[in-house]
Amino acid sequence: MLLRGMIPTAVALALGSASFVSVAGAQAQGTTPPAAPEASGTGSAAGQVPPAAAEQAPAAAGQQQAPAPGQAPAAAAPAQPAAGGQAAAAREGVTNEDGKYYTADGDPTYNIAEDGTVDWYTFSGFRRYHAECHVCHGPEGLGSSYAPSLVNSLKTMEYSTFLEVVTNGRLHVDASNQNVMPAFGTNPNVMCYIDDLYIYLEARAKGGLKPGRPAKREDKPEAAIEAENACMGG
Question: Predicted confidence band at 27 (pLDDT cuts at 50, 70, 90)?
Fold first, then answer.
Protein backbone atom coordinates (compact mmCIF):
# COMPACT_ATOMS: atom_id res chain seq x y z
CA MET A 1 0.00 0.00 0.00
CA LEU A 2 1.39 3.36 -1.00
CA LEU A 3 0.39 6.73 0.39
CA ARG A 4 -2.10 8.43 -1.92
CA GLY A 5 -0.84 11.44 -3.78
CA MET A 6 2.82 10.35 -3.58
CA ILE A 7 3.13 8.94 -7.12
CA PRO A 8 2.96 12.18 -9.19
CA THR A 9 5.30 14.01 -6.80
CA ALA A 10 7.75 11.11 -6.57
CA VAL A 11 7.76 10.69 -10.33
CA ALA A 12 8.37 14.38 -10.90
CA LEU A 13 11.38 14.25 -8.55
CA ALA A 14 12.73 11.00 -9.99
CA LEU A 15 12.39 11.58 -13.74
CA GLY A 16 15.91 12.91 -14.01
CA SER A 17 17.58 10.08 -12.08
CA ALA A 18 15.35 7.04 -11.49
CA SER A 19 16.07 4.04 -13.58
CA PHE A 20 6.79 -1.09 -17.00
CA VAL A 21 6.57 -4.86 -17.48
CA SER A 22 4.38 -2.82 -19.45
CA VAL A 23 3.08 -5.38 -17.14
CA ALA A 24 0.79 -3.87 -16.77
CA GLY A 25 -34.31 -13.55 -14.50
CA ALA A 26 -34.68 -14.73 -14.37
CA GLN A 27 -37.52 -15.86 -16.53
CA ALA A 28 -40.88 -14.71 -15.14
CA GLN A 29 -42.45 -17.63 -13.29
CA GLY A 30 -45.82 -18.77 -14.65
CA THR A 31 -47.93 -21.41 -12.99
CA THR A 32 -47.71 -24.66 -14.90
CA PRO A 33 -50.96 -25.30 -16.76
CA PRO A 34 -53.04 -28.04 -15.15
CA ALA A 35 -52.45 -31.46 -16.62
CA ALA A 36 -55.06 -32.63 -19.08
CA PRO A 37 -57.41 -35.17 -17.50
CA GLU A 38 -57.48 -38.63 -18.97
CA ALA A 39 -60.15 -39.25 -21.55
CA SER A 40 -63.26 -40.78 -20.03
CA GLY A 41 -64.76 -41.89 -23.31
CA THR A 42 -67.30 -39.10 -23.28
CA GLY A 43 -66.99 -35.40 -23.86
CA SER A 44 -63.46 -34.60 -25.10
CA ALA A 45 -61.54 -36.85 -27.42
CA ALA A 46 -58.70 -38.85 -25.91
CA GLY A 47 -55.64 -36.66 -25.26
CA GLN A 48 -57.49 -33.34 -25.56
CA VAL A 49 -57.75 -30.81 -22.76
CA PRO A 50 -61.35 -30.08 -21.88
CA PRO A 51 -62.41 -26.45 -22.49
CA ALA A 52 -62.65 -25.81 -18.77
CA ALA A 53 -59.03 -26.86 -18.28
CA ALA A 54 -57.90 -24.85 -21.30
CA GLU A 55 -59.42 -21.72 -19.81
CA GLN A 56 -57.25 -22.19 -16.74
CA ALA A 57 -54.00 -22.13 -18.72
CA PRO A 58 -52.02 -18.86 -18.94
CA ALA A 59 -53.05 -16.63 -21.83
CA ALA A 60 -49.48 -16.49 -23.17
CA ALA A 61 -46.19 -18.14 -22.43
CA GLY A 62 -44.20 -16.23 -19.80
CA GLN A 63 -47.28 -14.62 -18.19
CA GLN A 64 -47.85 -15.02 -14.52
CA GLN A 65 -51.22 -16.22 -13.32
CA ALA A 66 -52.97 -14.35 -10.60
CA PRO A 67 -52.23 -15.98 -7.22
CA ALA A 68 -54.89 -18.18 -5.73
CA PRO A 69 -56.99 -16.57 -2.99
CA GLY A 70 -54.87 -16.23 0.13
CA GLN A 71 -51.64 -17.00 -1.74
CA ALA A 72 -48.86 -14.39 -1.76
CA PRO A 73 -47.72 -13.14 -5.19
CA ALA A 74 -44.49 -14.65 -6.50
CA ALA A 75 -41.45 -12.52 -5.71
CA ALA A 76 -39.96 -10.62 -8.65
CA ALA A 77 -36.59 -11.85 -9.85
CA PRO A 78 -33.69 -9.61 -8.82
CA ALA A 79 -32.21 -7.37 -11.49
CA GLN A 80 -29.03 -8.73 -13.01
CA PRO A 81 -25.95 -6.46 -13.15
CA ALA A 82 -24.89 -5.34 -16.57
CA ALA A 83 -22.02 -7.13 -18.21
CA GLY A 84 -18.63 -5.49 -17.89
CA GLY A 85 -17.88 -5.64 -14.18
CA GLN A 86 -19.17 -4.50 -10.86
CA ALA A 87 -19.77 -0.89 -9.92
CA ALA A 88 -17.44 0.30 -7.18
CA ALA A 89 -20.33 0.83 -4.77
CA ALA A 90 -21.00 -2.91 -4.95
CA ARG A 91 -17.33 -3.86 -4.40
CA GLU A 92 -16.57 -4.14 -0.73
CA GLY A 93 -14.27 -1.49 0.62
CA VAL A 94 -13.93 0.54 -2.60
CA THR A 95 -14.21 4.30 -2.11
CA ASN A 96 -14.33 7.30 -4.43
CA GLU A 97 -12.00 10.15 -3.57
CA ASP A 98 -12.16 13.13 -5.92
CA GLY A 99 -13.08 10.93 -8.88
CA LYS A 100 -10.40 8.30 -8.21
CA TYR A 101 -11.32 4.92 -6.75
CA TYR A 102 -9.35 3.05 -4.10
CA THR A 103 -9.48 -0.39 -2.54
CA ALA A 104 -9.64 -0.89 1.23
CA ASP A 105 -5.83 -1.27 1.12
CA GLY A 106 -5.44 2.15 -0.50
CA ASP A 107 -4.47 0.91 -3.95
CA PRO A 108 -5.99 2.65 -6.99
CA THR A 109 -8.68 0.62 -8.74
CA TYR A 110 -11.24 0.76 -11.52
CA ASN A 111 -14.96 1.56 -11.49
CA ILE A 112 -17.37 0.30 -14.13
CA ALA A 113 -21.00 1.37 -13.71
CA GLU A 114 -23.85 -0.94 -14.62
CA ASP A 115 -24.43 1.01 -17.85
CA GLY A 116 -20.78 0.51 -18.85
CA THR A 117 -19.49 3.96 -17.88
CA VAL A 118 -15.88 3.73 -16.74
CA ASP A 119 -13.99 6.03 -14.42
CA TRP A 120 -11.64 8.58 -15.94
CA TYR A 121 -8.47 6.71 -14.99
CA THR A 122 -9.59 3.50 -16.72
CA PHE A 123 -10.30 5.51 -19.87
CA SER A 124 -7.00 7.36 -19.65
CA GLY A 125 -5.18 4.09 -19.04
CA PHE A 126 -6.65 2.65 -22.23
CA ARG A 127 -5.27 5.57 -24.21
CA ARG A 128 -1.87 5.55 -22.52
CA TYR A 129 -1.48 1.78 -22.87
CA HIS A 130 -2.12 1.92 -26.61
CA ALA A 131 0.34 4.78 -26.94
CA GLU A 132 3.21 3.30 -24.92
CA CYS A 133 2.76 -0.42 -24.24
CA HIS A 134 0.84 -2.25 -26.94
CA VAL A 135 3.75 -2.58 -29.34
CA CYS A 136 5.32 -5.21 -27.07
CA HIS A 137 2.42 -6.45 -24.96
CA GLY A 138 -0.21 -6.49 -27.69
CA PRO A 139 -3.54 -4.70 -28.09
CA GLU A 140 -5.79 -4.76 -25.03
CA GLY A 141 -2.99 -6.21 -22.88
CA LEU A 142 -3.39 -9.68 -24.43
CA GLY A 143 0.30 -10.27 -25.06
CA SER A 144 2.32 -11.05 -28.17
CA SER A 145 5.14 -13.29 -29.32
CA TYR A 146 7.50 -10.70 -27.86
CA ALA A 147 6.03 -10.00 -24.40
CA PRO A 148 3.54 -11.66 -22.03
CA SER A 149 -0.15 -10.91 -21.54
CA LEU A 150 -0.60 -8.23 -18.92
CA VAL A 151 -4.25 -9.23 -18.55
CA ASN A 152 -2.97 -12.53 -17.15
CA SER A 153 -0.22 -10.91 -15.10
CA LEU A 154 -2.54 -8.43 -13.40
CA LYS A 155 -4.81 -11.22 -12.16
CA THR A 156 -2.27 -11.89 -9.42
CA MET A 157 0.25 -9.04 -9.49
CA GLU A 158 0.01 -6.50 -6.70
CA TYR A 159 0.12 -2.76 -7.26
CA SER A 160 3.49 -2.34 -5.55
CA THR A 161 5.05 -5.03 -7.76
CA PHE A 162 3.64 -3.39 -10.86
CA LEU A 163 5.25 -0.08 -9.89
CA GLU A 164 8.58 -1.76 -9.23
CA VAL A 165 8.68 -3.60 -12.55
CA VAL A 166 7.62 -0.63 -14.64
CA THR A 167 10.04 1.71 -12.92
CA ASN A 168 13.12 -0.50 -12.79
CA GLY A 169 12.51 -3.16 -15.41
CA ARG A 170 12.93 -6.91 -15.08
CA LEU A 171 14.97 -9.72 -16.57
CA HIS A 172 13.32 -13.14 -16.66
CA VAL A 173 15.35 -16.07 -17.88
CA ASP A 174 14.43 -19.74 -17.87
CA ALA A 175 15.24 -22.81 -19.93
CA SER A 176 13.20 -21.69 -22.91
CA ASN A 177 12.76 -17.93 -22.59
CA GLN A 178 14.68 -14.78 -21.99
CA ASN A 179 12.37 -11.83 -21.43
CA VAL A 180 13.73 -8.36 -20.84
CA MET A 181 11.45 -5.66 -19.53
CA PRO A 182 13.10 -2.26 -19.95
CA ALA A 183 12.95 0.34 -17.21
CA PHE A 184 10.58 3.25 -17.74
CA GLY A 185 11.43 5.23 -14.60
CA THR A 186 12.67 8.22 -16.58
CA ASN A 187 9.82 8.26 -19.15
CA PRO A 188 7.19 10.82 -18.10
CA ASN A 189 4.71 9.52 -20.68
CA VAL A 190 4.64 6.29 -18.66
CA MET A 191 5.43 7.33 -15.11
CA CYS A 192 3.05 10.30 -14.97
CA TYR A 193 0.23 7.91 -15.89
CA ILE A 194 1.39 4.82 -14.01
CA ASP A 195 -1.83 4.60 -11.96
CA ASP A 196 -3.94 5.00 -15.11
CA LEU A 197 -2.11 2.10 -16.74
CA TYR A 198 -2.47 -0.11 -13.68
CA ILE A 199 -6.18 0.70 -13.29
CA TYR A 200 -6.91 -0.03 -16.96
CA LEU A 201 -5.06 -3.33 -16.92
CA GLU A 202 -6.69 -4.36 -13.63
CA ALA A 203 -10.10 -3.60 -15.15
CA ARG A 204 -9.20 -5.81 -18.09
CA ALA A 205 -7.87 -8.58 -15.81
CA LYS A 206 -10.48 -8.53 -13.02
CA GLY A 207 -13.34 -6.19 -13.86
CA GLY A 208 -14.64 -7.61 -17.10
CA LEU A 209 -13.71 -4.55 -19.15
CA LYS A 210 -14.28 -5.54 -22.75
CA PRO A 211 -11.75 -4.94 -25.51
CA GLY A 212 -11.95 -1.65 -27.37
CA ARG A 213 -12.17 2.01 -26.47
CA PRO A 214 -14.67 2.48 -23.62
CA ALA A 215 -17.81 4.08 -25.05
CA LYS A 216 -18.73 6.04 -21.91
CA ARG A 217 -16.55 7.60 -19.25
CA GLU A 218 -16.71 9.88 -16.25
CA ASP A 219 -15.43 13.43 -16.62
CA LYS A 220 -11.77 14.12 -15.95
CA PRO A 221 -11.43 15.06 -12.27
CA GLU A 222 -9.77 18.29 -11.28
CA ALA A 223 -7.33 16.27 -9.20
CA ALA A 224 -6.21 14.40 -12.33
CA ILE A 225 -5.62 17.67 -14.16
CA GLU A 226 -3.53 19.03 -11.29
CA ALA A 227 -1.47 15.85 -10.93
CA GLU A 228 -0.81 15.72 -14.68
CA ASN A 229 0.34 19.31 -14.80
CA ALA A 230 2.61 18.82 -11.79
CA CYS A 231 4.22 15.69 -13.21
CA MET A 232 4.58 16.83 -16.80
CA GLY A 233 5.70 20.32 -15.83
CA GLY A 234 2.62 21.97 -17.36
Answer: very low
